[in-house]
Specification:
The complex is a heterodimer of chains A (375) and B (301). Chain A is of the alpha/beta class and 375 residues long. Chain A contains 13 helices and 14 strands. In chain A, helix 5 packs across helix 6 and helix 12 packs across helix 13. Helices cover 74% and strands 4% of the residues of chain B. In chain B, the strands form 2 sheets. Chain B has a two-stranded antiparallel ribbon. In chain B, strands 2-3 form a two-stranded antiparallel sheet. Chain B starts with a helix and ends in a 14-residue tail after the last helix. The chains are: A alpha/beta (375), B mainly alpha (301).
């Protein structure tokens, strides 16, 4: 059956290239997303984003002569529902599936799609092991959990810091980020002169700061959350110590500046995925304009936009004349510089997204978070 | 050397707050033999009430900063004292003849009640004291520059502790409190109204705790509804370290705990600060089971 379908599609393709294929073939595309349940707001965004792009492509006469038929299945943010949704989409004979958000939910559907020979592009599932299974048809448009440490190392080296202090708070997230940054900095010539953990939930970090100062770093990277970050900034200023400090995406909270005080927070910067309204590529601006016109609001987070990136990947493959899961997967493995909404996108051999995702936000003199231009 | 002195000052500032909160634990223990686990949360209540008075009641706008802070200190100390008094009437007095374990359970319940009440009233978000209240000056002593607020925290703590000690040793009421601590029955025979003295202890201890709450709020800026638990735990430790039931012991214990913590982060690892501090506590309790100053008067005030 599959072989027959492949043959048929190849035939149609050949006709299309000959310039005679007028009878528009439909391309069945699945979207698995949490339209209900705890992540419904994300799921609704995913649905809106992909529907918008599909409608636009169809209105322009389809892609490479193919109209797109979008079939949506609700995974409810729950692994069991995801298995049912995946079976439903598989029996609808979709070629590719976009989704989904949660890592555990994606994992429950991975094997079903793979066994059915359906291409899957995860959009919000950052768990490392999803792409470590060697699945041929699995891709994702979001970064892996270890991408932030690599991004942090890149920022540190490109800003030219030589002796840095790495501090975490012993939470699995912050400790992981600190260790990944340390690993990513190996061999880069950056010395880690201080590596330690403070106790979260306390008020007074002057003893830790005094000790840090004695190690004489030219830069501090604290990977923990915003309440402790705010206290560190405040007490660092009180000590009269003007060393630059950076944080991870757990520092991205409006209360940070309130806790630290505007003057202490000024110049502090942190890594974070860009907020949808801050995405500054022409493609992103055009997309956000369309989105706002259609739905009278902006996407709540960057993860919904990642579903749009998944569509861009499939669109690019179709434009290159790839219409089967096998061909699309072959095209995407090793693809570079696809014009995704959140920035340029490529995929490595495992199906992980290649390219910058984390951006640097700086606190300005008014205590506002400002996106720094790309490095 | 500069590093050492700097860390010593860091430790003293933290320890001053531990000591202020520890006074509340030790006073109640001295009189009632009860660990008032809700005391840390009364401290948090003080921090929240101070913020409410300063921001929602616009005291900070109406008065110059220094006067506003002073007034808020007095008002909050009074309000938290009243809450402490009510706590004793509602949660502890009915259980006074029921054995110590029941009262401890009641104290834990009161602690949970206060934490959740704060969360329901104010919300689970972190709150921030207005920044301009914090005196922003630096004092230079013998070549060491010390942030003014840090010095103020140490000074305010010591003044409050000394005032309490003078009150206990040199007034008739203080003598009555000491008498009740030694023997309630005999004190009653001497014409002391024991219930009134216990109520008084529940006014003074929480009042000081509330004042410490504002001190933390103004100095560190950030308050949250669970702050009473972490400070309470440290202050309770400080009270034990100094010899529970003993007022100078609570002061010494608090300051010592702060300094040991600072030195542990300075000469060991920051992550191991608490482990080292508690290790020192265990060592001291092995050598002196009744705490540093608790030798003769382990259960007296």
């Amino acid at each position: 059956m599959k072989r027959l379908l492949v043959g048929l599609i190849c035939l149609v393709m050949a006709l299309g290239m000959a310039g005679t294929g007028q009878a528009a073939e439909t391309f069945k595309l699945g979207l698995m997303c949490p339209v209900t349940g705890k992540w419904a707001s994300e799921g609704l965004d995913m649905k809106n984003v992909v529907s918008l792009l599909v409608d636009k492509a169809n209105a322009a006469g389809g892609i490479n002569g193919h109209k797109i038929e979008l079939i949506i299945a609700d995974d409810a943010g729950d692994p069991r529902s995801a298995a049912l949704a995946a079976q439903k989409l598989a029996s609808s004979e979709v070629v590719a599936v976009i989704g989904t958000y949660g890592s555990a939910v994606t994992e429950a559907s991975q094997n079903i799609y793979d066994e059915s020979g359906i291409l899957q592009i995860g959009t919000g599932s950052t768990s490392i092991r999803l792409t470590e299974k060697g699945l041929q048809y699995f891709f994702r448009t979001c970064p892996r959990d270890d991408a932030q440490g690599i991004a942090a190392a890149k920022v540190i080296t490109s800003k030219g810091f030589k002796n840095i202090a790495l501090v975490h708070d012993n939470s699995s997230y912050a400790k992981g980020l600190a260790e990944e940054t340390r690993d990513a900095l190996k061999g880069s010539g950056v010395n880690i002169v201080f590596f330690d953990a403070l106790t979260p939930g306390e008020r007074d970090y002057t003893a830790s700061l005094t000790k840090m100062k004695a190690a004489n770093p030219d830069f501090i990277f604290f990977t923990g959350y915003y309440p402790e970050t705010g206290m560190l900034l405040r007490q660092k200023k009180e000590m009269g110590w003007n060393v630059p400090m950076m944080g991870g995406d757990a520092a991205n909270h409006a209360d940070l500046v309130k806790i630290a005080g505007t003057s202490a927070a000024e110049g502090y910067f942190f890594l974070s995925p860009p907020l949808p309204q801050d995405m500054d590529t022409p493609a992103a601006k055009a997309f956000l304009k369309d989105f706002e016109a259609a739905y009278k609001s902006l996407p709540v987070s960057v993860w919904g936009v990642m579903a749009g990136d998944a569509f861009v990947a499939i669109e690019a493959a179709m434009k290159a004349g790839k219409f089967t899961a096998e061909d699309i997967a072959g095209y995407l493995h090793g693809a570079k510089d696809l014009p995704a909404i959140t920035g340029t996108m490529g995929f490595d051999d495992k199906g992980d997204r290649v390219g910058d995702f984390y951006r640097v936000y700086v606190v300005n003199e008014n205590g506002k978070f400002v996106l720094e231009p790309k490095l | 050397m500069e590093f050492f002195v700097q860390q010593l000052l860091n430790g003293l500032a933290v320890g001053g707050i531990y000591a202020l909160v520890a006074l509340g634990y030790t006073m109640v223990y001295g009189v009632l033999k009860l660990i008032n686990f809700a005391h840390g949360d009364l401290f948090a209540v003080g921090a929240y009430l101070g913020l409410t008075l300063l921001v929602s009641c616009h005291l900070a706008q109406m008065l110059p900063p220094f006067a506003a802070v002073l007034l808020v200190f007095v008002l909050v100390a009074l309000m938290v004292a009243l809450i402490g008094y009510l706590l004793e009437r509602v949660a502890y007095r009915p259980l006074r003849s029921a054995g110590r374990l029941s009262a401890v359970v009641s104290a834990l319940g009161a602690s949970i009640f206060f934490e959740n009440a704060l969360m329901l009233i104010y919300g689970a978000r972190v709150f921030v004291y207005p920044d301009f209240l914090r005196p922003d000056f630096t004092v230079t002593i013998m070549g060491f520059s010390i942030p003014g607020m840090r010095l103020l925290v140490i000074v305010v703590s010591i003044v409050l502790m000394v005032a309490l000690q003078v009150f206990m040793l040199h007034t008739r009421v203080g003598a009555a409190i000491r008498a009740v601590a030694i023997d309630q029955g005999a004190a009653r025979l001497m014409g002391i109204n024991v219930n009134r003295i216990i109520s008084l202890v529940f006014l003074i201890g929480p009042g000081l705790g509330g004042a410490a709450g504002i001190l933390v709020g103004i100095y560190y800026g950030q308050i949250d509804f669970l702050m009473g638990w972490s400070y309470g735990l440290k202050a309770f430790t400080a009270a034990i370290l100094g010899g529970i039931g003993n007022i100078p012991g609570a002061m010494v214990g608090g300051l010592l705990l702060g300094v040991v913590e600072a030195m542990a982060s300075a000469y060991f690892a920051v992550a191991w600060k608490d482990a080292v501090a508690f290790f020192v506590l265990i060592l001291i309790l092995i050598v002196r089971p009744t705490g540093l100053l608790g030798e003769r008067t382990a259960d007296k005030l």
